Amino acid sequence: MNLEVFDIIVFLTGAALGFIVAIIAKNISQKGAQNRATSQGLTVNSIQQELDRKQVMVDDYFTATNEQLIMLEKRVSELRKSITTGAEHLSATTISAQPKSSEPDEEIPVVAQPPKDYASKEERSEGMLTEGYGLKTKSSELEPTRSV
């Protein structure tokens, strides 16, 4: 057999095997992509269902809490009425049904003072709270000394 014919046969066999392997790899990757898309779709759906379930739980919790607060307010109102009627039977003093507000009748004026400078300093020198404190710089601090 001629060497050129043998090379052609090997080349064609390799090309055919490469084509077959490429088709098989493409099918496998498409199936994997479909499986991933399906699993991601399931994941998104399950997360959405979990979020909806949690939202319903939160709504139910606040609804139940609101109902309990309303019942508690009714019980407190009934208790106040009971205490008021009992006190009226026991004494001649009249008791108002509404509690007094805890707000003060008069407002206390607030006197604002500027902050005090407690830093140690000499007489008539600037304190740390003055506007110009620390702004004066020496010229030697601005320009570094350079030696040639």
TrEMBL record:
Transmembrane parts of this sequence: 6-25
Biased composition (Polar residues): 91-101
Organism encoding this protein: Marinomonas balearica
InterPro entries reported for this sequence: ZapG-like
Region called Disordered, residue ranges: 90-148
Name of the protein this chain belongs to: DUF1043 family protein
Basic and acidic residues bias spans: 138-148
Superkingdom to which the source organism belongs: Bacteria
Assigned keywords, A-Z: Membrane, Transmembrane, Transmembrane helix
Pfam families named in the record: ZapG-like
